[in-house]
Amino acid sequence: MPRNTYLHHRVLHSAHDMPDPGLSHISIGVRNYDVSKAFYTAVLETIGLRLVYDSETKPTHGEAEAENEAKSEDDNNKGRKRTRTLGFGPDEAHETLNIFEFPDESAPLAPGPGFHLAFNAPTRDAVIEFHARAVGFGGSDNGLPGLRKQYGETYFAAFVVDPDGWRLEAVCKNET
User: Fold this and answer.
1) Domains, the chain
2) Order of strands across the sheet that contains 167-172
């Protein structure tokens, strides 16, 4: 089927079956891999995202080829330390957040005011748990869980700042 016909069919018959529009993933930099791994594993679990990639674990069969390519690239970059990486998503095929460690960077890693990452939460209880875990794993409160009617009648959200200064939000737009 020609591509235009395929897309036309998908739009007319099932918008939910369309490929995800917009962003594929977001990548952020952090100073401490271990702190960020603990923080994001605990916090993102509350909204259905899990650790799906860890550069420190043995690669799976499918990753072995990429690992060999990376080693040859490392040979070309002798003296440069390999960046430790984490990936989070609902599954391996949908990695939505990548985290790269930059322990020696002196510049700020998180952007300034106006920027935050907002994650959809399935329930209001998940928003509350997201906030509690974030604060419990070294983040700071930046807005307690609650309704934000200025954004919508059912807009229930919580805001936190991770250990590296990244501003995060969990939001549920359901009535419960």
Assistant:
1) 23-172 (3.10.180.10)
2) 117-120, 167-172, 156-161, 140-147
